[in-house]
Structure formats: C-alpha cells, structure tokens
Design goal:
Radius of gyration: 23 Å
Strand content: under 5%
Helix content: 55-70%
Number of helices: 12
Order of helices and strands: EHHHHHHEHHHHHH
Structural class: mainly alpha
Number of strands: 2
C-alpha cells in the first residue's frame, strides 16, 4: 500500500504543518484526550497507525479513539489527506535536529542513519508514504538539515551533498522497509519465518535437486554463510530481521567508504588514478 502525501487542501495543509506551537495551557501536555485540537488528533492518528497499520487509519477510527465523532475532528483537521501529512511530519521530528561532530563526520552520519532507521521501525507506516511528493513540513526539513550540516561541515559542496543525502535517505528507508516487513510477515500470515523457510527449503531441494549445479555461486555463498534459522534468536528480534539490520549496517559502511573516498584529496587516491565509486556523477 503506497500513500501519496499532499492530497489534502494545499493551503490548509501548509498552514497546519507550519503553525506556531500552542501558547496556552501550561502544564497540559499535547495530545491530551480532555481537549480536542490538532495535536491531540495527530497523536491519536499516530497511535492508530502504529497499532493497526495505515490501512486502518480513518477519521472515524481516530474519532473513536478520542471518544468523538469523525465530524468533530473536521473543525481542526479538514480530512485524512491533511492528517497523514501531519502525522508523517510529527514522527520525523523524533529524529534529532543536530549531531555532535567532535568524533568526526562519519560517526555523526551513522548516528543520523540509525536514528532514522529506528524511527521508521517505531512507525513502519511512514514507509508507505511515498517520497515522490514529500511532506514539506518542519519535521522533515529538520531531519534533512541535520544531515546536510554534517556533510557540509567537512567541505562537501552543495551538488554532491544533495546526491549523498538522497542516497543515504533512500538507503535507510529501503532497508528499514525490509526489516519492518519481516516483523509484519508472521502476524499477517499466521506462519512464522522459521516454519515458512523450513517448508520451502525442503520443497526447493525436492523440486530442484540440481540447484547447486544451476546456481553454483549462490550455492557456494550460502554454504559458507548459511545459519540454522530455527535456532537463531535475539530476544524479540527474528533471525531475518537481524539479517536486515546487519545488511543496513554493512551497506551504510560501504556508502560512507565511498563518501570518504570522494572527500579525500587527489594525492590520497591510488596510482594510476581510478575514478572513485563515490564520484556520484
């Protein structure tokens, strides 16, 4: 399920996204069920989507959570389109707006990527909001500003920074999606990862007894790397989810190796000169 942002009224949506913080009610936390306002509705929408997924999100479902009718919400949030934009921007604001670079730019980028990854797994429905039309809110911009500040702080020019930010953002979202789907597969299908793989591994060996001959590179790789899925565990984290997490960390390291090569002075490159993978052109 892919959801496109920006489907509500453009002027109302931008006004709600960029509205000033509430000035009154000191001591009354945002999202209180005792009053109905934009923050309360957005918090309830996030809770519905976190617990039941994007498919369950509706103005009626949010109203029920607050003990109100859907009609009562429309005074504050015009509709579901505007609500999704507000929810998406609210959860992105969980990612810190700045990072310490005292230990270098690379640990700071890793921290940004891991915080973004964790945010996506706390709220997996954000991965269904297409970035083809991004939500132009302060939460989204603060998340990107933090990364741009790190990269430009080490002298990266704006065109290259833009490309690196795009690569990192898409990589983190893509790998987080795989991890989120691993979490969702068993509850959605009623079959555990272990049972699914055990059944199909046996059937694959039966249906393709010549698998190793037909796919020798894959077979050799798996012979070295394979681990017994049924016995791998890490608390609540499944073997496959941990594989996704490991792939995220390894892939992030490879990307940052490329960025580091692109930042190095020409004298540090190998001889004869080789165009770096991270030239991004």
């Amino acid at each position: 399920m892919v959801v496109f942002s920006g489907q509500g009224d453009a002027r109302r949506t931008m006004g709600l996204l960029w509205r000033p913080p509430p000035s009154g009610g000191a001591g009354e936390p945002p999202g209180s069920r005792d009053r109905l306002d934009v923050d309360t509705i957005v918090a309830a929408g996030i809770a519905v989507a976190d617990e039941r997924g994007m498919a369950a999100l509706s103005m009626r479902a949010v109203g029920r959570r607050l003990g109100r009718t859907a009609m009562a919400l429309y005074t504050h949030v015009p509709g579901k389109g505007e609500l999704i934009d507000l929810m998406h921007d609210r959860v992105l604001a969980e990612v810190p707006g700045s990072y310490e670079v005292g230990e270098g730019w690379r640990p700071a980028v890793v921290a940004w990527a891991e915080d973004t990854w964790a945010c996506c797994l706390r709220h997996p429905w954000v991965l269904q909001v297409s970035q083809a039309r991004p939500v132009l809110g302060p939460g989204a911009y603060a998340q990107l500003e933090a990364l741009v500040e790190i990269l430009q702080g080490v002298g990266m020019d704006s065109p290259r920074t833009r490309r690196v930010v795009s690569v990192l953002f898409q990589f983190v979202r893509g790998t987080a999606r795989i991890a989120a789907e691993h979490r969702q597969a068993a509850p959605a299908t009623g079959v555990s990862d272990e049972a699914w793989w055990e059944a199909r591994s046996a059937l694959l060996a039966e249906a393709a007894p010549d698998f190793a001959r037909r796919f020798p590179a894959l077979a050799a790789m798996e012979a070295v790397a394979a681990a017994p899925v049924a016995h791998e565990s890490d608390g609540a984290v499944s073997y496959l989810e941990r594989e996704a997490r490991d792939a995220f960390r390894a892939g992030l390291g490879l990307i940052l190796d490329g960025v580091e090569a692109a930042l190095a002075p020409p004298a540090a490159w190998s001889t004869p000169p080789v165009r770096p993978v991270a030239d991004f052109r």
